[in-house]
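Support reply, case 0932

Customer input (verbatim):
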Amino acid sequence: MKPAKIPVSVLVVIYTPQLEVLLLERADRPGFWQSVTGSKDHIDEDLQLTAQREVLEETGIVCQDFRLSDWQVSNVYEIYPVWRHRYAPGVTHNTEYVFGLCVPAPSSVRLSEREHVGYQWLPYQLAADRCFSASNAEAILQLPQRFER
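Our regenerated output:
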């Protein structure tokens, strides 16, 4: 049996200077599109390392080749009931930390087949509209202001 997931995760918005955003389609919920997400593997794992690991696992992109930035934003949200069985009994909320990864241009990615079945690069407004997660959509909509910094 797998150990319970830690209710601390990262959300990594991967985007280009033209504000095109990479979205991934979940394997366990076709039609659910999102940015890279994932939980800490262990409680002491550094969030930056969690973000780097998740991006590599889900897309094959090596973060050290680009600019990964901690947006200093966190969201606490209720875990969807369909996924609560992955956590310890009684855990209902997750804290998500938001990162951005700027890459020079849209490119092919290597999907983790057990997690995702498709990907697409979209202009940021369309990407935000396609996300099933409100916090993911909100992070994407912040791109124009964040990219100017």
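We compared this against your earlier run and they match. Two observations from our side: The CA atoms of residues 125 and 141 lie 7 Å apart. The longest strand covers residues 67-78. Please reopen the case if you see a mismatch on your end.
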